[in-house]
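pasting for the record
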Amino acid sequence: MQLEQIDHVAIAVHDLDAAIDYYQQAFGSQVTHREIVERDGVEEALIPVGESYIQLTTGIRPDSPISIFLDRNGEGIHHIGYRVKDCAEAIKAVVAAGSRAIDETPRPGSRGTTVAFIHPKGALGTLIELVEDPSG
């Protein structure tokens, strides 16, 4: 298993529209994808940076991981997403290396991707999202 590239850096925000406005005003950035992911209780907006993205994300219900993160930590970097060729194989490799998978099997992500999260304990304190993008 090899990391192909950084897919995204996720930033948890309280107000998604205000965060989008900030990136537009400060950097001239434009959102290329916006989606509510009901399963995770989040809404996200993707801003391209080269071949990667900044993912601005907020909770849409109090029990979502992003809402809980925001309550505990305030706004800031939530996780990093790494693009992989095969998410299922990547999970096996990471677990074999001693990490703990939050998602033991891949699941649907936004943009038609397949994803799995790796727990920060055993991953150098960083929440990692493995992202398989069928569009390449």
